[in-house]
Amino acid sequence: MNTNVCDKESRLIRPIKELKGFSKVSLSAGEKTNVKFELTTRDFSYFDESFSDWIAESGQFEILVAASSEDIRLRSTIQLNSKQPLKIEFDERTSLREWIQYPETKAIIFPVVEEFFMKMPNEFEGELIDFKIKNDYFMDMPMGKYNYFSRGAIATEAIAAALEQSKGLVLTH
Fold first, then answer.
1. Rounded distance between C-alpha atoms, residue 73 and residue 110, angstroms
2. Which of 110, 120, 107, 105 is nearest to 151 (CA)?
3. How many angstroms separate the Cα of 85 from the Cα of each of 27, 112, 144, 158?
4. Which of 2, 34, 59, 84 could bridge to 22 as Cys pair (CB 3.0-4.6 Å)?
5. Residue 126 pLDDT > 50
6. Are 108 and 91 in contact (CB under 8 A)?
7. Where are the beta strands (DSSP E) in the chain?
8. Which residues on adjacent β-strands are paired with residue 46?
9. pLDDT by residue (tens digit) across 50-101?
10. Of 96, 89, 78, 13, whose CA–CA distance to 39 is shortest?
């Protein structure tokens, strides 16, 4: 028997199923036994380079108990409410996408990029408020490149001020 965990809401791309425990059990025909698995916080975690740490984020996780990866015998969904503190360590290489993942850092970066994006072609019109920018090029560009790309409309000083404001910020998610 094995136990798999599936993160249904991860902010990062994760495997569909992650093996978290297994036990080899030999049974005779008709024989039954109990198998026990204990999951720890680490079983719900992934390594996040943004924080240089293992992160267990809040969200729904599906627990699968199976005889094999295809032979699922039991499934249950749980809600994990993480209280893990995350210390922000953003720098010039941090993308806009990373900045807007958390309400606290989204509020810091929005004023820095707002005017630039509001002057963009119709593709972005009315979408900045919710950061529904469809162009991955903009979302994944490191903030340090925005001054050059915007031809100075996004000031290096404003980016530096946002970075300074984010230092020491601790989030829980």
1. 47
2. 120
3. 45, 26, 26, 27
4. 2
5. no
6. no
7. 2-7, 18-22, 46-48, 53-55, 59-66, 72-80, 85-87, 170-172
8. 55
9. 777 888 888 899 999 988 888 998 999 999 998 888 888 899 999 998 898 8
10. 78
What are the distances in angstroms from CA 33 to CA 22, 23, 57, 142? Answer: 15, 12, 34, 54
| 120 token code pair | 């963009």
C-alpha 166/C-alpha 61 separation (Å) is 30
Q: What is the pTM of this model?
A: 0.60
Tokens describing residue 114: 């707002």
Round to whole Å and give the CA distance between 111 and 102. Answer: 15
Cα separation, 71 vs 74, in Å, equals 9
Segment 6-33, tens digit of pLDDT: 888 787 788 889 999 888 888 899 998 8
DSSP 142: B
Looking at residue 109, its amino acid is I
